[in-house]
Specification:
This protein has 462 residues and is of the alpha/beta class. The protein folds into three domains: 16-102, NAD(P)-binding Rossmann-like Domain (Rossmann fold, 3-Layer(aba) Sandwich); 110-318, Mur-like, catalytic domain (UDP-N-acetylmuramoyl-L-alanine:D-glutamate ligase); 327-461, Protein-Tyrosine Phosphatase, Chain A. Helices cover 33% and strands 22% of the residues. The chain has helices spanning 24-35, 52-57, 72-77, 95-100, 107-112, 128-141, 156-160, 176-179, 206-214, 233-241, 289-304, 309-318, 346-353, 377-383, 394-401, 415-425, 447-461; strands spanning 16-20, 39-44, 63-67, 80-83, 104-106, 119-123, 146-150, 169-173, 189-192, 225-229, 247-252, 259-262, 266-271, 274-280, 327-332, 335-339, 360-365, 384-390, 409-411, 431-434. Helix 14 links the parallel strand 17 and strand 18. It is globular. It starts with 15 loop residues before the first strand and ends with a helix.
């Protein structure tokens, strides 16, 4: 464990700091703050018996724990409050801190104040993790020492608190929740992939959600770079209404003056209407139009941070995608089973369906995030033979999409039943696709557990 003291505009020595949320981010934040000499209280509404692993991870550190609820006095007396990404910054319990003018920030904002290396940050409704990992690979293949983390894998604060070896570039996936609590966070290169309906169970309006995403550009300067998807309707509108201060590099399947043009089999980099690079997609393991967009964004962002054309091409050729994202998990009697459990919103399902020419038996359902399932009607009518609805949102899905699948809608009470019914409806050459358009929390701890359950059932079918 590091014991170095780091310079920062805020001296943390002997400060009373409350960390809200005892997940991976909260544990890393508490460790870091203790190392900086702060007096740390960690609070989480979950009871201690459900937090055994994170509690054990902090064993031996001088950390006060308030579990099973929050004490208002902690927020009244705090010098700083640090929120984990999953904790809304609008919670009433934070009112005492806001009233006193106490800074309430997120773990990412805290970490960014100590990072002197260039930061490349990626956000968007869909495709964040794939693009972030692809950028990291492009930079590594170019000989760069790279840290990849943030909203995936290792929290940024753990990088700050880690070994003395430093990265050449810090590549971070950034969520809207993290952007809600920034003050000075300023990426050298910022990427917005797309902005579509999501998390409307947390944000009052879609506009509020979009505004949160757009904050990634808030502190950028003209010397920084903003990589933007000109094909996304919301992004395009926001470019017109609220253009970033940074140098804009757009990507599109149409003509582009500065950025990247997406063709069916290659990505062209353009500057001042002149081609400055070309990357083939012939060997890419990423399928679908949306992944061509992700690859274009990655090419632009990685090049800005010094990736070589050879390194970029090698990464494109070798990157096979990530688990739970259009991942083929088996073939049984000619039926292909695809795990897209990470598709937790309507736009992600639409993009998944675009990838297949063969008839699809689609498994949907889970915990609705106030998404509008009628947004799937066109793609379901065009590509889905049979829909299997399950989970908490089952009735909403049936109501929204009745009459659209060619062979109708089946209902299932479990993942086991859903897979069995989908398999029974499929024939040789067709695809069973788990693409839920919902969160997993009605039945599973997370999307990965849901996808793994799907895989287990498929494996037993064979």
């Amino acid at each position: 464990m590091s014991e170095k003291k780091l310079p920062h505009p805020m001296d943390l020595q002997n400060k009373q700091i409350v960390v809200v949320g005892l997940g991976r981010s909260g544990v890393a934040t508490a460790r870091f703050l203790v190392n900086q000499g702060a007096r740390v209280t960690v609070t989480d509404r979950a009871p201690a018996e459900t937090l055994k692993a994170p509690v054990a991870a902090l064993e031996g550190l001088n950390v006060q724990m308030k579990l099973g609820g929050h004490d208002a006095l902690d927020f009244e007396t705090a010098d700083l409050v640090v929120l984990s990404p999953g904790v809304p910054h609008t919670l009433p319990m934070l009112e005492p801190a806001w009233a006193k003018g106490t800074p309430v920030i997120g773990e990412m904002e805290l970490a960014a104040g100590y990072i002197t290396e260039p930061i490349l940050a990626v956000t968007g409704t869909n495709g964040k993790t794939t693009t972030t990992e692809l950028v990291g690979n492009m930079l590594r293949k170019s000989g760069k020492n790279v840290f990849v983390g943030g909203n995936i894998g290792t929290p940024l604060i753990a990088y700050v608190d880690g070994a003395d070896a430093r990265a050449d570039v810090v590549v971070a996936e950034v969520s809207s929740f993290q952007l809600d609590t920034i003050i000075d966070f300023r990426p050298d290169t910022a990427v917005v992939l797309n902005i579509t309906d999501d998390h409307l169970d947390r944000y009052p309006t879609f506009s509020a959600y979009a505004d949160s995403k757009w904050r990634i550009f808030e502190n950028q300067r003209p010397s920084d770079v903003a990589v933007l998807n000109a094909m996304d309707a919301t992004v395009a509108a926001m470019i017109n209404n609220r253009p970033p201060n940074a140098c804009q590099k757009l990507y599109s399947d149409g003509a582009i003056a500065k950025g990247a043009q997406i063709l069916k089999d290659k990505i062209l980099l353009i500057d001042a209407d002149r081609q400055t690079g070309s990357f083939t997609l012939d060997k890419s393991g990423l399928i679908g139009p949306h992944n061509r967009e992700n690859t274009a964004a990655a090419c632009l962002a990685a090049r800005e941070q010094g990736a070589s054309d050879g390194g970029i091409q090698q990464a494109i050729d070798e990157f096979q995608g990530l688990s739970h994202r259009l991942e083929t998990v088996g073939r049984v009697r000619g039926v292909r089973f695809v795990n897209d459990s990470k598709a937790t919103n309507v736009d992600a399902v639409n993009r998944a369906l675009e990838c297949f020419d063969a008839p699809v038996i689609l498994i949907m359902g889970g915990q609705n995030k106030k998404g509008d399932f009628t947004g799937l009607k066109s793609q379901v009518r065009r590509r889905v033979k049979t829909l299997v609805a399950m989970g908490e949102a089952k009735d909403e899905i049936v109501t929204a999409l009745a009459g659209d699948p060619e062979k109708g809608i089946l209902e299932a009470g479990s993942m086991q039943e859903a897979v069995e019914k989908a398999f029974g409806a499929a024939v040789d050459g067709e695809i069973v696709l788990l693409s839920p358009a919902c969160a997993s929390f009605d039945r599973f701890d997370n999307y990965a557990q849901r996808g793994n359950r799907f895989r287990e059932i498929v494996e037993r079918l064979g």
